[in-house]
Specification:
9 strands, about 25% helix, alpha+beta, about 35% strand, 2 helices, about 100 residues
Length: about 100
């Protein structure tokens, strides 16, 4: 099990860190990969996505950028996205299980 991260900080449960299951860890990594601006992570300039700087905010364009961002995560596929004024709601397939990932704009 892995410690849960929320908004860049570890989540505590009492005096210990809250731990999450493997699928939730993958979803956490999906959100991190999509949310991080590409080129801003010093150790790996290819880590992240261009979603927030994208000129075209169409579903297909955003899905393409998200798929590119998570291409290094095995067993993860971005199925669809719902775009609102304040968030992206991605439908993600992780090891044949369908889950949702929300990214605030």
């Amino acid at each position: 099990m892995t410690p849960e991260i929320n908004n860049g900080d570890y989540v505590k449960s009492g005096k210990t860190l809250k731990e999450i299951e493997y699928i939730d860890e993958l979803l956490q990594n999906v959100a991190l990969n999509i949310r991080t601006e590409k080129g801003r992570f010093y150790p790996d300039k290819n880590f992240g996505s261009h979603i927030f700087s994208a000129e075209y905010k169409t579903d297909k364009y955003i899905i393409g950028l998200a798929r590119q961002a998570v291409s290094s995560l095995n067993g993860v596929y971005i199925k669809s996205v719902k775009i609102t004024d304040k968030s992206f709601e991605f439908t993600v397939i992780v090891n044949n299980l369908e889950r949702q990932v929300f990214i605030k704009v």
